[in-house]
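Box 3.1 A note on notation
Throughout this textbook, protein chains are presented in two layers. The first layer is the amino acid sequence; the second is a token string describing backbone geometry. Keep the layers aligned when reading.
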Amino acid sequence: MVSPGPAIGSTSGLSGLLPELEVIRKDFPILERTLAGGMPLVYLDSANTSQKPQVVIDTMVDHLERHNANIARAMHQLGAESTEAFEAARDKVAAFIGAPERDEVIFTKNASEALNLVANTLVWAGERQIGAGDEVVITEMEHHSNIVPWQLLTQRTGATLRWFGLTDDGQLDLSNIEQLITERTKVVSLTWVSNMLGTINPIAEITRKAHAVGAIVVVDASQAAPQLPIDLAAMPLDERPDLVAFTGHKVVGPTGIGVLWGSRAVLDQLPPFLGGGEMIETVRMDVSTYAGIPHKFEAGTPPIVEAIGLGAAVDYLGHIGLGAIHAHEQAITAYALEGLQGIKGLTVLGPLDAALRGGAIAFELDGVHPHDIAQVLDSRGVAVRAGHHCAKPAHARFGVQSSTRMSSYLYTEPREIDALVEALEYTRSYFKLD
């Protein structure tokens, strides 16, 4: 259970923690939960999904109770209210990432759908169409959602898939960037922050190189959007990615909602992904014409209440400030790295410098399977993830099948890291590793 005081050293010098942490924690009702056996919940699985503040829950309930109607088609007061709330959510998301235009924000069901949208439309796209002889470059640290769509694209088109490897400390190996990104490269797609290794990648540097050869850059920001300040409009054009995807449930929003931001220039060149209602300009039996962005990519009834919940979520994060959240994450991550490295037989995967990584820390414990670790920790009230984290190639690079992963967020306290360390020491004694 959570210890009443620090277990791995005083936190008095732990700078960067959110000063209003206790107030923030009260915004998340689930953090008050007690688990079976009387253990208080220590939630260290936020890279998997974040918890939701009361304001997001209340906003979604209020919409369903008082304003529920379909959008952009119901000519009555409820329809108008629902449409207004849905489009206001688009404005909020655009502000959250500093989108140059609000219509460049497209709602999807998750980041996986956003990435698949891009990969599929590039199979069909006119001047952006990818074919035999073209190359797509990804990295060895990608989530499967940013590997499989590009495998499918290259298999279907005859294009070649290439990738950046990883250094021993879990960073991208850029030593062969000149050979990887060439005149044949049409797309470079990579994660901003690794969900397994925690590595923060040099997006600006890679984007500059890709743009210099005429390639477009796609960024999976699912782990970056929750913890890094993003201001797309402020980025120099040669350093700004062309398309950015992230998911709502990792930014204290609901599941079932994702975001694809794309520059108007690129989105206008891509054909529709799905056909149906609302994505059309006009339909005849022989031919159809299509709406402009964002509606061209939002066929059918969208995830209305989920988008509205996401709007409330990014408002909440914006009120706290992404700069402050990032500083908190770095402080907690540094504290966790210190504690984990003090456990005998434990190896952290990825950079050991908190300034180089996000809040997800994957690790191995000699002699114990990650699933067994997670079960013992769960019996102590500590929730972590065990497995390959949808990043099997990255695990293979380091010669392991799976790992245990803890991941913090803006509501994580140092005492919860203490609880993790204590639970891991208990795990060692449970399996008689001494």
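Residues 77-97 form the longest helix (21 residues). DSSP finds 13 helices and 15 strands in the chain.
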